[in-house]
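Quick one: structure for this chain?
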Amino acid sequence: MIVYRNEVSHRWRRQALLRAFGEGEVLRENLCDADFLLVAAATHHGYAVDRACPVCGRDSLREVRWIYHERLGRRSGTARSEEEIAEIIKTVPNITVHLVEVCVECRWNHLLTATVASPE
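Got it. Here's what it folds into:
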């Protein structure tokens, strides 16, 4: 089991950015810039969420977790499932986990939260 703590939310920035987009202050191509690897990670390691993409309105929005820690070596900076994170923190506790929202259709992406994952 995973315990997430010390959450830093980036949702306020998300809302401000989407508001600016809605008011025409930000162009869509500046929002929808996920690269191939981020879209692939969201597709294969992420999970579908029960809300539409805030940019294109399609039901192709996914969330994916990225892990970071100096002791992870090559695994640091990679997308992982919840199950994989649970296994990893057994040997490397207190890893940083970024939750990223990605639309696999229009390539919208935004960091939602950063947390520290530890074993229960």
